[in-house]
Amino acid sequence: MVLTEAGVRRELKNLPEGEKNFQIEKGVIVTPSARQYLNDRNVKLVVVDKLTNKNSKVEASNQSEDSGKIFPKYKCFQGGYLEEKPEHMTQLYGNKLVFKDHKKIVLRGKIDSLESKILETQVLSVKLQNEKLALELEEILSFVREILRCEVLEKPLGDINLIGMNEKEIREISHDPKKYFNMEHFFTSYKMGEIVVSINSLRSAVREVEIEAFKAFKNEEGEVSREDIIRALNRLSSCFYVIMFRCLTGKYK
Question: Residue 67 pLDDT more than 60?
Fold first, then answer.
């Protein structure tokens, strides 16, 4: 017997409010799209020896509907199914395929590039014997990877805490450097040194990622989803700005 996404959709409507377990009997084949549908809604798939509850109806309905059907491996957002993934397409969520210029795929590529730039700056920091900065960049790198993970899995991003600052502190310090570093806002110059110039490149790279995030999460009506990710990227660029001040005022020595 095969359990499809359509069958899961029907049965979930009958689950009591707050119920997070969906039971199936041993031996039931669950299609990839059905598993992804449950994962997206944080519903746990529970395998039991024999069903004795409300889920039992779905087996009979799926068995009659799906007998003899072939379930392709991939589902296209534009409609239809594919057994093999074409080179010009990639997986967006689960087994759902989109073209590689999809806005969210472009965003993921930008995040990947940002990670590479952070690693390059870490190498430079170690070369210049600034281990403390390299460690802070490692923390930021983990945060960027968490942003990507939460986007791919459609999970909310947690609180923003970076290199000893929470979200409010990052914003406040970056907006008032005179108070915290006795320095005014500045335009970056080569005279500030290669590490400051490199951090500035990270700051501007985050801005590019933030723009792609806005494009990816804005619908036709101008409404924006994933404000948590967009806000995190905004704070991340401010965090790099704070690091530049730390470098210039000798905080890493």
Answer: no
